[in-house]
Amino acid sequence: MKKKEFSKRRLQLMRMMGEHSIAILPAAPVRQRNRDVEYPFRQDSDFYYLTGFPEPEAVAVLAPGREHGEYILFCRERNPEKELWNGRRVGQEGARERYMADDSFPVSDINDILPGMLEHVDKVFYTMGCNSEFDQRLLGYVNKIRANARSGARTPEEFVSLEHLLHDMRLYKSEAEIKAMRHAADIASDAHQRAMRLCQPGVTEYQIEAELMHAFRKANAHAAYPPIVGGGANSCILHYTENSDELADGDLLLIDAGAEYEFYASDVTRTFPVNGRYSGEQRAIYELVLDAQAAAIATVKPGNSWQMPHHEAVKVLAQGLSDLKILKGSLDFVLESESYKQVFMHRTGHWLGMDVHDVGDYKVGEEWRELEPGMTLTVEPGLYIQANSERVDERWWNIGVRIEDDVLVTKTGCEVLSERTPKRIDDIEALMREGGV
Q1: Rounded to an integer, what distance in angstroms lies between the CA atom of residue 173 and that of residue 262?
Q2: Is 404 labeled as catalytic in the residue annotation?
Q3: Strands, E, within 76-194: which ranges?
């Protein structure tokens, strides 16, 4: 992502904030995995969205109209000894030159500098509850100012949740963001195709997971979330992540795996037969889910509500379940009784962006939000028929199918960002017959 992209975002946010205000964003903290081993560091999405800065122990401050610079970045100082052990640091000079900060100070000095900046503003934009340690520090700064009220110090009049403005900005993707998301979807497509080619009875779920991770890292990406690789009965567990079982002849394999590239996620699910050929029952369920997804994607266009893709998918699934006699009763009965929730228990999608389940309100007031150009979402209907499902013939048991794609709302309709990933039955079976990688 180019530097001007981050600068444009900061300027837009400061225009929305108005004068006599300040925004404060701490970076993500380092998390301990066990004893003296840390989890791989991943920057906080909001912080990165505005700064592009990759390090922990940093705080970004935006102060519209500040005479000595509107964008201030507190970060770690250069330290040759610590850099020898843990890697290079940007430092204050790097923060100004490489990350376009107007001013930069050592983060160790923040307790001396930030309270003074808070004295001169009416409104503070900060999101409480995300970083409890910094929440307490910020409250301490305010109390310190209040204690000096007799000396003329003035506390800010209003605290506003920063995410109210920032998350609405993140909901609308720029051309640079869309480019990154297209690439993330292409990487996921390559990974899913690799899994299809290598899948066969006797292979384990974790071996398939290893192939996905290989494809991600080869393309300089990471897994956007822990992959779901569930064969047979495991395909009916929505958030199955053990990925430990051997794949059996005659079972389906459901893979939900997306790549994160330059902080932008893809989220793709495909379901295919372990032995390369769908059985009659598997084919019937798969085609029903595919039809439901097509109906849902057709409604992704400006002016339609967020709820419409889900509504259309449910109608198609309910009709198909009634026709197949998996659920008893007419379409109207299945819809009104919501008996379809026995086998389709989740919604048809979510916002997608820097976070897999990305930020942004789904309702405005009491109404479902209207779709607008630049929004990105997943469309992912599914059916999950567990063994011993009540009043369902056992020939349908252990069939779990989900088909998920990443969809961008355009000016005239939508673009399926993950369209390169095969999902027609004939295409999947042909690819699996080819084998190899």
Answers
A1: 14
A2: yes
A3: 103-106, 123-125, 158-160
The pLDDT of residue 365 is above 70:
yes
135 is catalytic: no
Between CA 112 and CA 118 the distance in angstroms is 11
- Six-digit token pair at 359? 């930020």
**The one catalytic residue among 10, 384, 405, 406:** 384
Judge whether 255 and 425 are in contact, CB under 8 Å. Answer: no
What are the beta bridge partners of residue 264? 261
- Give me the pLDDT at residue 150, please: 67
Q: Distance of CA 261 to CAs 14, 39, 179, 254, 406, Å? A: 27, 19, 10, 23, 14
Do 221 and 191 form a contact (C-beta atoms < 8 A)? no
- Token pair recorded at residue 324: 């197949």
Tokens for 347? 């919604």
Residue 206 has pLDDT above 90, yes or no: yes
Among the listed residues 267, 355, 405, 406, the single catalytic one is 267
Cα 341 from Cα 290, distance rounded (Å): 18
Does the annotation count 183 as an active-site position? no
List residues bridging with 400 in a β-sheet: 384
Instruction: Tell me, yes or no, if 36 is annotated catalytic.
Output: yes
Q: Which residues pair with 259 in a beta bridge?
A: 223
Cβ partners under 8 Å of residue 293, min gap 6: 313, 379, 380, 381, 403, 405
Q: From the candidates 48, 71, 350, 358, give the one annotated as an active-site residue.
A: 350
Pick the closest to residue 252 from 427, 432, 401, 435 (CA basis): 401
Q: pTM (2 decimals)?
A: 0.96
